[in-house]
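Cross-check.
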Amino acid sequence: QVQLVESGGGLVQAGGSLRLSCAASGSIASINAMGWYRQAPGKQRELVAAITSGSSTNYADSVKGRFTISRDNAKNTVYLQMNSLTPEDTAVYYCNARATTSWGGNYLYWGQGTQVTVSS
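Predicted model, tokenized:
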């Protein structure tokens, strides 16, 4: 089994910054892509940013230039640095990881989510 645990969410004023972390643990042989999604009330979950094992990145247009995704492969951890936050960034943020387990399975795992609230 593989677990993802997010941290770093909270309340911040518009224009502020937050850094989210997501650590993967368990029966991991390797982790391929990792990513961050978010879901605002009444809206569908959407991709925020993703990063491959080779550190290629992809961002939603709405966060380009403000958010930066990175990963530490040694720690099986992905980060999301969020700058210049706006109230529109308010959502529950979820990380995911495509992992190969120690028994050879390949699955997509999700974290439990962390709330980010940006006040105006």
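The chain has a mean pLDDT of 96. The first strand starts at residue 2 and ends at 7. Passed to J.P. for a second look.
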